[in-house]
Amino acid sequence: MNQIHFFSLTSTFFPVLFLVFFTFLFQARKVTAVDENFRICSVPRYCGKMNIKFPFFIQGRDEPRCGYPGFEIHCRNSSLPSISFGDGDYIINDIYYHNQSCHLSRAVSFDKYAICSHSIRNISLPSDRFLLPSLQNKTFLFFNCNLSSSRELSRYNIHCAAKNESNATLALFSNDPMLNFASEYCDTRVVVPVAFTSGEGSLEGILNRGFMVEWITSNCSICEASGGE
Question: Wall-associated receptor kinase C-terminal domain: from which residue to which, for each copy (predicted)?
């Protein structure tokens, strides 16, 4: 009778013990993998003097698991890091990890020729990873504008060579009350985000000072504080 009872208990609890054992083993291996990732990726990484941390990783130097897909950056000759978007490359001047933002500027500087030749394009941010701060200023560049129909817009003319009143190029800032009016007399426009306002220097200087972007990923500070646990 006791022997039968023993075998009955064994047949009842063995599957439970088996499940508990393998659950423990799986969790232990999972924790080991997390610890290994944290150990590798928590090592300080620099591009020039800039500390590179999650979600960014240096392409060709860091393991992709140390960053987030789409946040790979380039570090050439220990200079400032750069990142590529659909419309070109951008220099990362500063990274502010505490509020998930960074200060960018175009890798190829703005000059009068680039503006007047219409070679500037709208910034193409991947919307699932980056966004522009809502209160940030913008510069609107209008092309092929007909000033003969509106003399009021003449003060925005940047006077490109070989341009006349029927195909002028204008520059206005986002807070200008004439912005909508200018749209009626110009064919195309390009919007350039800027971290500064009008009156702070030349148009080229303002554009070359860059702008701010914010990134969209989970905040890693809790993981860092816990040592990856």
Answer: 170-228
pTM reported for the whole predicted model? 0.75
Max Cα-Cα span within the chain: 110
Question: Per-residue pLDDT tens for 137-159?
Answer: 999 999 999 988 888 899 999 98
Query: Could you read off the pLDDT of 1-22 as tens digits, one per residue?
Result: 545 544 454 455 445 444 444 4
Per the CB < 8 A criterion, the answer to whether 101 and 213 are in contact is yes
Q: Is 29 helix (H, G, I), strand (E, B) or coil?
A: helix
Domain that holds residue 27: 1-41
* Strand bridging mode 57-58 / 72-73: parallel
Give Cα separations from 22 to 17, 19, 29, 31, 212 (angstroms). 9, 5, 11, 14, 49
Could you tell me which of 96, 91, 115 has the C-alpha nearest to residue 204?
Answer: 115
Q: What is the mean pLDDT of residues 57-79?
A: 87
Q: In angstroms, rounded to a whole number, what is the distance separating the alpha carbons of residues 25 and 13?
A: 18
Q: Cα(147)–Cα(58) distance, rounded to whole angstroms? A: 48
In a domain, 132, yes or no: no
- Structural contact between residues 228 and 37, judged by C-beta atoms closer than 8 angstroms: yes
